[in-house]
């Protein structure tokens, strides 16, 4: 796959807030039908990177290319218009609103003429039901408040919504962070479904055990800089975990502890 076919590419992207460098010389690629995992602990620069991709912030230097075209998003709406959908950890849902109402929020079907147009509730329910069913997501009652769903179910609804409304790139911010093992597995299954539909997926996580089974390429960040960038064929889970855990630092600590014990 050539670089020009990438949905998103960053080349040496840097971002500072005042005197604090949040991201320095970071390069990555997001291809259609692949999952690019961005891994790092708190303060690694993951949030800054996705905010640049999602149009929340603009980079200071380097290049952001969307389908080969150098781009600076003026707003999140501009990124969304280019097919980049971001699902943040807090999901930006209205907890007391029904599942179907949240699903069509911002893209509501209406009927009527001019300023007298009204929400087409029947069509909205049908859109939500069909889209969720198409992804194999079972929600018993679309009338229930979305806040009553489990964390895993809410993530799955958000993924199905992005797929339905034509996203080319799906950015997921720590989608499994607050979930148990079973629910995390369910969410990762739908991540794979989105990938298999040809979307480019950016999975932000600090958990290599969640990233490795679904990832095609891995970008490791530490204190805003690239710690490593790998395709799946170039790294195994144990090495990914070792690097995430600060392998060299842990080895040095172990050596120091052994000297103390002597």
Task: Describe what this molecule looks like in 3D.
The protein is α/β, with parallel strands linked by helices and 262 residues long. The protein has a single domain (3-96, 166-261), classed as 3-Layer(aba) Sandwich (Rossmann fold), CATH 3.40.50.300. It contains nine helices and twelve strands. The strands form three sheets. Strands 6-9-10-3-11-12 form a six-stranded mixed β-sheet, with helices on both faces. It has a four-stranded antiparallel β-sheet with strand order 2-1-4-5, with helices on one face. Strands 7-8 form a two-stranded antiparallel sheet. α5 (151-164) packs parallel to α6. The N and C termini lie far apart (54 Å). It comes from Nocardia macrotermitis.
């Amino acid at each position: 796959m050539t670089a020009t076919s990438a949905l998103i590419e960053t080349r040496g992207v840097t971002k500072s807030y005042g005197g604090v460098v949040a991201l320095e010389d970071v390069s990555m690629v997001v291809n259609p039908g692949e999952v690019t995992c961005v891994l790092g602990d708190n303060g690694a620069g993951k949030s800054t990177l996705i905010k640049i991709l999602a149009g929340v912030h603009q980079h200071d230097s380097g290049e952001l290319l969307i389908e080969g075209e150098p781009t600076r998003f003026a707003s999140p709406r501009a990124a969304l218009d280019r097919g980049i959908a971001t699902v943040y950890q807090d999901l930006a849902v209205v907890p007391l609103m029904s599942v179907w109402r949240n699903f069509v929020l911002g893209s509501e079907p209406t009927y009527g003429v001019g300023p007298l147009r009204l929400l087409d509730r029947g069509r909205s329910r049908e859109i939500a039901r069909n889209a969720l069913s198409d992804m194999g997501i079972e929600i018993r009652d679309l009338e229930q408040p979305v806040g009553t769903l489990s964390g895993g179910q809410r993530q799955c609804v958000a993924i199905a919504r992005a797929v339905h409304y034509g996203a080319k790139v799906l950015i997921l911010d720590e989608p499994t962070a607050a979930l148990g093992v079973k629910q995390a597995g369910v969410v990762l299954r739908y991540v794979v479904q989105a990938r298999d539909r040809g979307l480019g997926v950016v999975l932000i996580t600090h958990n290599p055990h969640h990233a490795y089974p679904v990832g095609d390429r891995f970008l490791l960040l530490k204190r805003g800089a690239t710690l490593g960038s790998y395709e799946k064929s170039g790294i195994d889970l144990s090495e990914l975990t070792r690097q995430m855990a600060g392998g060299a630092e842990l080895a040095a600590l172990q050596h120091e502890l052994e000297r103390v014990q002597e």
